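Renewal narrative, Specific Aim 1. Our central claim is that a sequence can be written position by position from structural information alone. The example that follows is taken directly from our test logs and has not been curated for this report. It begins with the structure tokens describing the chain, in the order in which they were read.
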């Protein structure tokens, strides 16, 4: 049995939904398939925008959202579904779900308050709609299919917006709901991104969480493999917008893929591999626009690169926060106080570096978290600032994080020397550096304007544009779907 997840661009319109359904139908001839779908392209952004506008008191936001959802999904139904009864049923579903979203927006506008619970309910509407369209498209191809709300099968904690699965209960519910369908030859189409608390309240797994949904279900159902269908050929050696000769990596380990996702590689949600690690279920990243291509296979071991470095990734939408001063060495618990303050405002700390003199400690957060993190730090260190033991708490938003990732980095001498020499030759100045405790990456901070030069310099230094003849063969048999 396979779990196949289709991202927003892979179900972006009627043509893409039909293509995704064809991929599922082809696979279903060889065994059971559970499909997991994201919202159609752009839908989640519009849902969140409408929710935020409603919270500001805009009474029209919900009405305009309902009309937009109706128009987009009605056009897809018209193009996808030939059976009049099925078309009428799907149209009624769209009317109801879009109406529910409008009602939630209206209530939010009246209260001028957007609770995390309400935001989850509104932002999840896109997946609820696309699952029904995908099931309809599969029926058009002669398969038996049903849309399944993930609230029925994925049990989570109560953390709205970033819920975590409760795997034992999820395993029980998923097997009870989905395995009988598979045994009857039915293809379940499950809403990605969504779960429900033990009490049945809808939760979401965080933006991009449909990848996570797929591996949660894959682990719960003990799938043979999980395929994440997207709009790129797989995991690349670098962002092709930064490095023109970046190439697709055929094989990569869980650890390497997790490091790349953590440091900004958009092809995979950072939490995706957690559920499957113990079961060692392979995860594929493949291109739904070109399904004949083999993609990238993610396994526990992968195939190490001979050079030690497998890929380079970078994040530009970040800020560097520095807490420092000559008296900081005498302040007890500076690190604990710093990161407790960051945690209090739910800031995601991506990287930490401390001067050997212990006069400064700096760390990277997402740019959107910077202002409230600095405010929290100023409150936490108010007394130390007043007595000049801490002299400054600064933020620099003109930076980027670059990370070189590879499983062989820990056992290959000279990698750091080559990396920093390459940066020096290119004239790239390093602002801060931290080697991950996993030793699968070396990450460092540069000026935002130097990010492209940094990534390109490392990519060429380690010949990542070339095929590794031992582990990464030029040709490989394509995977049957």
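The sequence written for that structure reads:
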């Amino acid at each position: 049995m396979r779990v196949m997840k289709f991202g927003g661009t892979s179900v972006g319109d009627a043509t893409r939904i039909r293509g995704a359904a064809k991929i599922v139908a082809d696979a279903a001839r060889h065994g059971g398939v559970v499909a997991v779908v994201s919202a159609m392209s752009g839908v989640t952004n519009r849902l969140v925008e409408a929710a935020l506008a409603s919270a500001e008191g805009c009474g029209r936001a919900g009405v305009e959202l309902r009309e937009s959802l109706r128009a987009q999904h009605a056009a897809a139904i018209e193009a996808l579904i030939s059976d009049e009864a099925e078309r009428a049923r799907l149209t009624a579903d769209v009317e109801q779900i879009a109406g529910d979203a409008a009602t939630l927006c209206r209530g939010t506008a009246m209260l001028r308050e957007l609770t995390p619970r309400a935001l989850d309910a509104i932002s999840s509407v896109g997946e609820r709609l696309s699952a029904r369209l995908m099931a309809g498209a599969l029926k058009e191809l002669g398969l038996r299919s049903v849309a399944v709300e993930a609230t029925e099968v994925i049990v989570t904690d109560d953390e709205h917006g970033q819920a975590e699965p409760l795997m034992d209960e999820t395993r029980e519910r998923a097997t009870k709901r989905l395995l009988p369908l598979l045994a009857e030859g039915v293809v379940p189409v499950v809403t990605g991104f969504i779960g429900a608390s033990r009490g049945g309240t809808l939760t979401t797994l965080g933006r991009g969480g449909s990848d996570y949904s797929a591996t949660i279900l894959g682990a719960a159902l003990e799938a043979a493999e999980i395929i994440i269908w997207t709009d790129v050929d797989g995991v690349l050696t670098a962002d092709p917008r930064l490095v023109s000769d970046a190439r697709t990596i055929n094989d990569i380990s869980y650890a390497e893929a997790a490091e790349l996702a953590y440091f900004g590689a958009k092809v995979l949600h950072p939490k995706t591999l957690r559920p499957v690690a113990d079961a060692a279920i392979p995860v594929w990243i493949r291109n739904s626009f070109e399904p004949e291509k083999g993609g990238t296979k993610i396994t526990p071991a992968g195939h190490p690169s001979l050079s030690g470095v497998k890929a380079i990734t970078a994040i530009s939408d970040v800020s560097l926060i520095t807490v420092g001063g000559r008296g900081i060495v005498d302040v007890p618990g500076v690190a604990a106080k710093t990161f407790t303050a960051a945690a209090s405002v739910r800031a995601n700390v991506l990287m930490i570096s401390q001067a050997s003199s212990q006069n400064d400690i700096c760390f990277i957060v997402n740019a959107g978290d910077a202002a409230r993190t600095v405010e929290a730090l100023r409150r936490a260190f108010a007394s130390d600032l007043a007595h000049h033991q801490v002299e400054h708490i600064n933020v620099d938003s003109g930076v980027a994080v670059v990370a070189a990732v590879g499983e062989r980095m820990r056992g290959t001498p000279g990698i750091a020397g080559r990396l920093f020499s390459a940066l020096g030759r290119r004239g790239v100045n390093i602002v801060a550096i931290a080697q991950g405790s996993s030793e699968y990456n070396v990450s460092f901070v540069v000026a935002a304007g130097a990010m492209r030069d940094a990534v390109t310099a490392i990519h060429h230094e380690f010949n990542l544009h070339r095929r590794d003849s031992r582990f990464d063969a030029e040709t490989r048999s394509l995977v049957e779907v």
